Amino acid sequence: MKKPSIFSKDYDRKIKKRKKVILSLIIIPIIGLIIFLKIDFKGLVNKGATTTSSKDEVQKKSEEVSQQQANAQKAKIAQAAIAAKAKASADKTSFIATMPNGQKVTVEYSGAAANKTIKGILNAKDVSYDISPSKKLIVIQSTKNQDIIYVDINKTSKDITRKIYTSSNNQDYSKEEQLKNSPNYIWSITPKFIDEDNIAYVSELPWMNEKKVQYIWKLNLKDNVHMQVQPASGMKITFGNSTAKGLETNIDGDVVYVTALGEVTK
Question: Domain span at residue 190?
Answer without folding.
Answer: 92-265
